[in-house]
Design a protein that fits this description.
By secondary structure, the protein is α+β, with helices and mostly antiparallel strands. It has twelve helices and nine strands. A hairpin with a 2-residue loop joins strand 8 and strand 9.
Length: 408
């Protein structure tokens, strides 16, 4: 891809409000869209794409203004993810996961820890990855050193989104002989951290989501997030990681769907031929074509509006993290589950049905329209949507709230 940046990204001040940052994301998206289909085919490590996110300032969106960050909130971050995913679902996912892991220090860390991490991340424009796949065995964490002042992480994870393009990686494991879960942020070039080039799936091909081996990665006890004198003080806020990442999913699904619809509409306007027996000179005048675009657009707008509403509800929890109750957390997760179900269904339908209104020639490999469906289909299998609907249904029928797990 071209690495030439618009001059104002480097010569003008960064945006100062949400509309400005969303507009900046749209500029980045336009750059990514130019060769998105070709980059999807090549499947190369997205170093240039991540550099684009850094140089545009998007990686620092949630960071403190005093240290060069954007000082924005989660609803803005989600909209930015959606905008980037319109052009490239993989890069939208990478950016969304980056926001999650950048925020992880605040999720579980002490104030001193997360203030330090957020300041350093903003100043240095760190890009975050994470090796925290809960379907695999936990990493084993052992104490070492004369005063047991060092933690040593060992194990393997099947997925590590961000891997080679990240500056730092979040690790999570269980302290040997205990039930203590420990998060730590380490440099991605740490000795003992090995990323493997084995991500070869039909969609989200540029997410660098391959496996990783963690072989004796050493971390000072003082860097264990949320621990003071080796003791962790739990809060309900610590359990918001799942709702946050699920809203990330929702937004890059909807971004991919919006990109598919926009790309298809351009194709229909410029390339689709009217049916020879339809009696119309242009495809855009075919009644069934008009109907499908109207139907799909209405479903997209409906899902986007719901997603935005849920994101605003989530922000109220972030605004007062010490006041969150288990009841408030559970009710929010039900809303997130419902939004996830709606977004998944809308994105799958939109990305598959666009071919009905673009025509047979649009299936040519050179057009790359299939990448939108492949991307959505691949990631929506992350956790079964039936279980999201179950969370909603149980709450409606019995008042039951989801128990916090890695997936709810």
């Amino acid at each position: 891809m071209s690495t030439t940046l618009p001059a104002d990204w480097t010569t003008l001040p960064a945006p100062t409000d949400a509309p400005g940052w969303i507009a900046r994301a749209a500029e980045v998206s336009a750059v990514l869209a130019v060769d998105a289909a070709a980059r999807d085919k090549a499947g190369a490590t997205p170093y240039a794409e991540v550099r684009l996110l850094k140089e545009s300032g998007l990686v620092t969106l949630l960071g403190p203004v005093a240290h060069g960050g954007g000082g924005q909130d989660w609803p803005t971050a989600y909209r930015v993810v959606r905008e980037i995913a319109k052009a490239d679902g993989s890069i939208g996912q990478l950016l969304g996961y980056h926001y999650l892991w950048n925020w992880a220090a605040r999720l579980v860390g002490t104030r001193a820890q997360w203030e330090h991490v957020e300041a350093e991340a903003a100043r240095n424009r760190w890009f975050f990855g994470g090796a925290v796949n809960p379907r695999d065995d936990d990493l084993v964490v052992r104490e070492e050193g004369e005063d047991a002042d060092t933690l040593v992480f060992t194990g393997r994870k099947s997925f590590s989104t961000g891997s080679k393009v990240s500056d730092v990686t979040v690790l999570e494991g269980v302290l040997e002989g205990t039930d203590k879960h420990i998060f730590a942020i380490v440099p991605s070039d740490s000795e003992g951290l090995a990323f493997h080039d084995d991500w070869d799936n039909i969609g989200q091909r540029l997410t660098e989501s391959g496996s990783v081996t963690i072989d004796g990665v050493r971390v000072p006890w003082a860097s264990a997030a949320g621990y003071t004198d080796k003791t962790f003080a739990p809060r309900v806020y610590n359990t918001l990681n799942v709702p946050v990442i699920q809203i990330v999913f929702i937004n890059f699904y909807l971004g991919i769907a919006a990109g598919a619809l926009e790309t298809a509409a351009t194709y229909t306007r410029t390339k689709t031929r009217p049916w020879l027996h339809g009696g119309h000179e242009r495809a855009v005048d075919e009644p069934y074509v008009i109907d499908v675009y109207g139907d799909l657009t209405a479903k997209l707008w409906q899902a986007e509006a719901f997603a935005d509403r849920v994101a605003e509800e989530a922000q109220r929890l972030h605004d007062d993290p010490d006041a969150i109750t288990e009841d408030a957390r559970g009710k929010h997760e039900v809303r997130v589950a419902a939004a996830k179900a709606v977004a998944t269904e809308a994105a799958l339908e939109i990305t598959s049905r666009i071919f009905e209104v673009t025509g047979a020639r649009s299936t040519a490999s050179a057009e790359g329209l299939d990448r939108f469906w492949r991307n959505v289909r691949t990631h929506t299998l992350h956790d079964p949507i039936a279980y999201k609907r179950r969370e909603v249904g149980r709450h409606v029928l019995t008042g039951e709230l989801p128990e916090p797990t890695w997936y709810s």
